[in-house]
Design goal:
It is built from 4 helices and 10 strands. Strand 9 and strand 10 (190-199) form a beta hairpin. By secondary structure, the chain is an alpha/beta fold. The protein has helices at residues 54-66, 81-92, 117-125, 137-145; strands at 8-16, 20-22, 44-50, 95-98, 112-114, 130-135, 151-157, 165-166, 175-184, 190-199.
Length: 204
């Protein structure tokens, strides 16, 4: 497909039914594959992530790419086919890491560091396809507060965590969303897609 006049930034996140992205001790075992969110975003030509997430992210996906038949770091099983496909897609796609502390990033080879949201806005404004905002949650909240993210795509899991880190922790503005699509899956998950149509400066 041809490039758009500017990129669409899409955050795709996995969330429990009661609105948490991880348990009280950081548990993420309820999400069986962290690669599935990428499948919600067509025509990706840029990945965006934060400095807090980047080191483990790079180590994890590089290990899967190098040894797809071995158990990677931070896991207790061999990678799924979707995770292997993610690693192969990721290594070929430019990554942008928003950080004021990292000196450089080494994986994938076409990764770069930007120091502030203004630099990210410049990249967003360039002709391109969709950009996948990988996370972490702090970055997603910051970009929502700054009005940079265009769409949210949520994979809602049929699990109640009770406590943990909330999906919208760190949001300090009222967001108005337009529902684009709802889809149920055989596994019991619900995929919900929203367009961010306004980003109010009103604070609670």
């Amino acid at each position: 497909m041809t490039s758009h006049a500017s990129r669409t930034l899409i955050a795709a996140l996995q969330v429990s039914l009661d609105g948490f992205i991880q348990g009280p001790a950081g548990e993420k075992d309820w999400a069986d594959s962290w690669a599935s969110a990428l499948g919600l975003i067509p025509d990706v030509d840029m990945f965006v992530l934060g400095a807090g997430m980047y080191p483990d992210y790079g180590e994890y996906w590089n290990a899967i790419l190098a040894n797809p038949d071995r158990v990677p770091p931070f896991q207790d099983r061999v990678p799924s086919q979707s995770e292997i496909a993610y690693a192969r897609k990721a290594v070929q796609t430019p990554h942008v890491v928003l950080s004021t502390t990292l000196g450089k990033v080494s994986w994938p080879p076409n990764a770069q560091v930007v120091r502030n949201v203004a630099e990210l806005r410049v990249l967003k404004g360039q002709p391109g396809k969709n950009a996948y905002v990988v996370g972490g949650a702090t970055l997603v909240a910051r970009l929502l507060n700054e009005g940079v993210i265009d769409e949210l795509r949520l994979i809602v899991h049929p699990v109640v965590l009770g406590k943990g880190r909330g999906l919208f922790d760190g949001i300090d503005k009222r967001l108005t969303l337009d529902l684009l699509q709802v889809e149920s899956t055989e596994s019991g998950r619900i995929i919900v897609c929203y367009r961010v149509i306004s980003n109010s400066s009103t604070r609670w």
